[in-house]
Automatic annotation (TrEMBL):
Domain RNase III positions: 38-192
Any GO BP annotation: siRNA processing
A GO molecular-function annotation: ribonuclease III activity
Protein known as: RNase III domain-containing protein
Domain of life of the organism encoding this protein: Eukaryota
Length: 249
């Protein structure tokens, strides 16, 4: 019950109570070579799981026919919320006097299909996704090639590496971003809903890329978003957008 939640670790108490009463159900998990090397994933994110089944679940796509674990959708839902909060807090702390429009815009640039896909590949999570989809295999290979090409092209520049939001034109499978979010959800649950643990993973794996490639100065956004931000910065808190079609056009 939400009225019983006062602190982060209260989620752990509620979760454990539901697990004991079978409100939360899991398939039994046993180690399987098809699940990949979970130890490598742990080393990549800098977190050691108490319950390996949670990490296995975070890496399991719905197309998998393996009976060892459930797919990642439940953890992805949780991880999406956790990562959203971490990113929002990061930018709010870095830009304490910026208006809500700008914070929203930079948060949107930090959590989207493209950048999450790049982070997933850089962490090597894509190598451990358990699935039975030839289409997804092709999508992952194409995503890796796209990133490698961008890195190779950047080596010829003075900076020697990609700058700014170099991923904005990438067409990545949503699965890559979902897996990254599900891993965050898995860490949150496995740690007993200890927010400091997922914050640690964020600091190690996500924050460096945000600091290196995204800032208010380099932010690229939709013209409508830029307009709303400008209006809010001028002191107008109520903005209404209307789509009007001219029947004569």
């Amino acid at each position: 019950r939400l009225e019983d939640i006062d602190r982060w670790d209260d989620f752990a108490k509620l979760y454990n109570e539901q697990a004991k009463s079978n409100t939360v159900c899991f398939r039994p998990f046993t180690a399987d070579p098809g699940l990949g090397d979970l130890n490598r994933v742990e080393r990549s994110i800098g977190y050691k799981f108490k319950e390996k089944r949670l990490l296995a679940e975070a890496l399991t796509h719905a197309t998998s026919i393996k009976p060892q674990t459930s797919c990642y959708q439940r953890l992805e839902f949780l991880g999406d919320a956790v990562l959203d909060m971490l990113v929002a807090r990061h930018w709010a702390q870095k830009y304490p006097i910026s208006g809500p429009g700008k914070i929203h815009a930079i948060k949107a640039a930090s959590i989207n299909n493209q950048i999450l896909g790049v982070m997933c590949i850089r962490l090597g999570l894509h190598q451990h996704i358990l699935h039975m989809s030839s289409e997804l295999s092709s999508d992952i290979k194409r995503a890796v090639y796209t990133l490698n090409d961008a890195m190779e092209d950047a080596r010829a520049t003075p900076a020697g590496e990609p700058e700014g939001e170099f991923w904005e034109d990438f067409n990545y499978s949503k699965v890559l971003g979902d897996v990254l979010e599900s891993v965050f959800g898995a860490v949150y649950v496995d740690s007993g809903f200890d927010f400091s643990e997922v914050e640690g993973v964020f600091e190690r794996c996500i924050k460096p890329m945000l600091q290196k490639h995204i800032s208010m100065a380099t932010l690229k956004g939709h013209p409508v978003t830029a307009l709303i931000s400008r209006v809010q910065n001028e002191g107008c808190s109520e903005v209404t957008l209307k789509n009007i079609t001219d029947p004569s056009s």
